[in-house]
Design brief:
Active site: 167, 193, 289
Structural class: alpha/beta
Number of helices: 12
GO biological process, one term: chemotaxis
Shape: elongated
CATH topology of the largest domain: Rossmann fold
Number of strands: 14
Helix content: 25-40%
Distance between the termini: 58 Å
Protein name: Protein-glutamate methylesterase/protein-glutamine glutaminase
CATH class of the largest domain: Alpha Beta
Family: Belongs to the CheB family.
Modified residues (4-aspartylphosphate): 57
């Protein structure tokens, strides 16, 4: 090209936007014309700046990168380089991004971001230059087998979520689990059948017993690793998604299975919004609340776990889930924290070890 390659950087991390800008502008043939923290800002900057190449993250608020890429390639095809901790060669996310029209990818390290990106500077610069002279795949160029719509892609993120449901005997069972979970655990959301007057005190008691920061959930609260969120005693707790971020949503809809909060309500929302990034745990309790929701989670690719009969105060809810084939695995209460640690390390791959 007779002029510098104009690049727009799209990433929700201010640090990464700064690092990529510094690395790319080391090359006189590249000009970073702008940055955007999410796809909605990027959309406007594409209109205003007409970049030649886009670098795009996957995990972003409001709209994830795959959905944005799908929209971009349909409405305004242009060369895109994925720069994400998710885009490891051969991974589902990478293949999905390439199928949707991305030219190439550069892996962003999850630890030591600055050093990792600096070591990839030459690779990134080369790929940007190649992308600039590539021909974006137009809609008419699409292969016979279409890439799945981004909204339907169950890709695994670096953030994971654990959802726990319990009833009779559950206040002590949940406390025992959280007492043995590490401070860097994935976020945990909890639906425990408990009267409204007791749920705040229950959350405080869990907070004192656990290395996690435990609180009673509030509506609109962002769900973050190292934290646990307890459903208030007279509200359904649901997990909502905005882009690749999760939030707590509370509502006073009718009781489900005679309960509010209902474990089924929580588990179904996790199945719909977290898919294979989630782990569902159904502990001791009377009745069958949570069994169908746990089955839905398993069907969506989550790792699902039930407390065994021997260690349960009442094996009603876990037993109902067992009869529905909703659980990847049964475990004693003492074994549950260790399995959650394995989920934190392995993610949905753990479900392949089901027994």
């Amino acid at each position: 090209m007779s002029r510098p390659i104009r690049v727009l950087i799209v990433d929700d991390s201010a640090l990464v936007r700064q690092l990529l800008t510094e690395l790319l502008t080391q090359d006189p043939q590249i000009e970073v014309v702008g940055t955007a923290q999410d796809p909605f800002v990027a959309r406007e900057k594409i209109k205003d700046l007409s970049p030649d190449v886009l670098t795009l993250d996957v995990e972003m608020p409001r709209m994830d990168g795959l959905k944005f890429l799908e929209n971009l390639m349909r409405l305004r095809p242009m060369p895109v380089i994925m720069v994400s901790s998710l885009t490891q060669q051969g991974a589902t996310t990478t293949l999905s991004a390439l199928a949707l029209g991305a030219v190439d990818f550069v892996a962003k390290p999850t630890l030591g971001v600055a050093q990792g990106l600096e070591s990839s500077a030459a690779e990134l610069i080369e790929k940007v230059k190649i992308a600039a002279i590539s021909r974006p795949r137009m809609a008419s160029d699409a292969p016979p087998v279409q890439a799945p719509a981004a909204a339907q892609i169950r890709y695994e993120t670096t953030d994971r979520l654990i959802a726990i449901g319990a009833s009779t005997g559950g206040t002590e069972a949940v406390r025992e689990v959280l007492a043995h979970v590490s401070a860097d655990s994935p976020a945990i959301v909890i639906a425990q059948h408990i009267p409204e007057a007791f749920s705040a005190s229950f959350a405080e008691r869990l907070n004192k017993a656990s290395a996690l920061a435990v609180c009673q959930a509030s509506d609109g609260q962002e769900i973050r690793p190292g934290h646990a969120y307890v459903a208030p005693g007279d509200d359904h707790l649901e997990v909502a998604r905005s882009g690749a971020r999760w939030y707590c949503r509370l509502n006073k809809a009718e009781p489900v299975n005679r309960h509010r909060p209902s474990v089924d309500v929580l588990f179904r929302s996790v199945a719909a919004n977290c898919g294979a990034n989630a782990c569902g745990v159904l502990l001791t309790g009377m009745g069958d609340d949570g069994a169908r929701g746990l089955k839905q989670m398993r069907d969506e690719g989550a790792f699902t776990l039930i407390q065994d009969e021997a260690s349960s105060v009442v094996w009603g809810m876990p037993g109902a889930a067992h009869r529905l084939d909703a659980a990847c695995q049964q475990a004693s209460l003492a074994e549950v924290p260790g399995l959650l640690g394995e989920f934190a390390r392995q993610g949905s791959r753990l479900k392949h070890n089901c027994r």
